[in-house]
Amino acid sequence: MLKHRVIPCLLLKNGGLVKTKKFQDPKYVGDPINVIRIFNDKEVDELIVLDIEASKAQREPNYELIEQFAGECFMPLCYGGGISTVEQAKRLFTLGVEKVCIQTWALADLQLVRDIADRYGSQSVVVSVDIKKNLFASHRLYASSTGKMLDLPWQDFLNKAVAAGAGEIMLTAVDRDGTLAGMDLALIHAASQSCPIPLIAAGGAATLSDLRAAVDAGASAIAAGAMFIFHGPHRAVLITYPQYNDLVSLLDK
C-alpha cells in the first residue's frame, strides 16, 4: 500500500453513480458495479462510496446495493450516507464494509462516533468535514444534508471529532468539488496543523502534481472523483487511475 493513499471517491444517487460540481448538479456517469470492477483491475488500494441522498431523505443505507459493492471490491471499502445508529454501522461491517463515514449525525451529536469507535475501534470510523467559503472568503463548516453553512468554527468541530474517537478525517473543499481546479492547499495545511490522525483531503484534484501538493500541504491521503472519472475538456466519462509505480515515485519520497 502507498504511504500516502490515493482514493477514488464515488457518489451515489438513486443507486447510480453521479458526479457533482461544488456539491450541485449531480450528473449520471455510470453503473457503480462496473466502475468498481474497473478500479479492481487498476489495483486501487481503497475506495470511498458516499450516498449523497440518504441523509437528505432521512433514510438508511441501501444495504442490498452496498452488499454488492463489498462483494465486488478487492480493496477496503469505506461507505457513508444515512448512518445514524451503531446498529446500522454494525450491519454495514457485517456486509463487508471496513469503514463508515459519518457527517450528518456527527454534526448533530458526536456520541455516534464515540459509540462506533468504542465498539469497533477508531480505525472503523471516518468523520467527513465539508468546508465552504462564505462571501468574505472565510472557510466555514458546511452541512451537506441541508446545504447550509454552520456557525460552529470548523477547527473546533474537527478537534471534537478527533476527541470523540474518529480514526480519520475526510476534509472536502466544497468550492473545489468536481472543478478539477486544484486543491485548497491553504485549507489542507490549516487542518493538518491541528489534526493528529490521518487527514484525507478532497476537492479539486486534477493532476498528479495536485496530489503531491496536497501531501506537501499536510494531507495523509487524497480522495478524488472527477480526476478519475472525466477525461478531456468536454468531461467525457472515462474511468482512469494512475499507474501504481507512478504514484510510488510521486508520493513515497
From TrEMBL:
EC number annotated for this UniProt entry: 4.3.2.10
Single GO molecular function: imidazoleglycerol-phosphate synthase activity
Annotated catalysed reactions: 5-[(5-phospho-1-deoxy-D-ribulos-1-ylimino)methylamino]-1-(5-phospho-beta-D-ribosyl)imidazole-4-carboxamide + L-glutamine = D-erythro-1-(imidazol-4-yl)glycerol 3-phosphate + 5-amino-1-(5-phospho-beta-D-ribosyl)imidazole-4-carboxamide + L-glutamate + H(+)
Top-level enzyme category: lyase
A Pfam family: His_biosynth
UniProt keyword terms in alphabetical order: Amino-acid biosynthesis, Histidine biosynthesis, Lyase
Metabolic or biological pathway, per its Swiss-Prot or TrEMBL entry: Amino-acid biosynthesis; L-histidine biosynthesis; L-histidine from 5-phospho-alpha-D-ribose 1-diphosphate: step 5/9
Entries under SUPFAM superfamilies matching the protein: Ribulose-phoshate binding barrel
InterPro entries referenced in this protein's UniProt entry, alphabetically: Aldolase_TIM, His_biosynth, HisF, IGPS_HisA/HisF, RibuloseP-bd_barrel
UniProt keyword annotation of ATP-binding present: no
GO terms for biological process, alphabetical: L-histidine biosynthetic process
UniProt keyword Amino-acid biosynthesis present: yes
PANTHER family: IMIDAZOLE GLYCEROL PHOSPHATE SYNTHASE HISHF, IMIDAZOLE GLYCEROL PHOSPHATE SYNTHASE SUBUNIT HISF/H IGP SYNTHASE SUBUNIT HISF/H
NCBIfam families the record matches: AglZ_HisF2_fam
Description of how the protein assembles with itself and partners: Heterodimer of HisH and HisF.
Family: Belongs to the HisA/HisF family.
Function, as annotated: IGPS catalyzes the conversion of PRFAR and glutamine to IGP, AICAR and glutamate. The HisF subunit catalyzes the cyclization activity that produces IGP and AICAR from PRFAR using the ammonia provided by the HisH subunit.
Listed name of the protein: imidazole glycerol-phosphate synthase
Species, as recorded: Polaromonas naphthalenivorans (strain CJ2)
Organism lineage: Bacteria, Pseudomonadati, Pseudomonadota, Betaproteobacteria, Burkholderiales
